[in-house]
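Model it.
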Amino acid sequence: MELKSRKSAEDVANWILDSEYEEVVLIDGLDDAFIGCTPDGVAIYNIDRCSEIVAEDSNMPIEDAIEYVQYNVVGAYVGPKTPLFIEVMYEYCNQEESG
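Modeled.
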């Protein structure tokens, strides 16, 4: 099985520096789920990819990883720059096309 190449913390940090955002709150270990930022510099993450990363890195079933992410990551408030989480529509659309 071929592993996907992941975005690194350095990749994300360099993108933020190039974009000139200030004080972006990032989540350790979930760099590959990072999508970008709002105009105010709030980080945006793909919630489905967050769950996949947690499942892969922790060797846990995806259902447990989803629950973990919902409670421990999405549910955490770290101030006004708390990251946002989105479900990406294209994944839904691809499922509809194949079904």
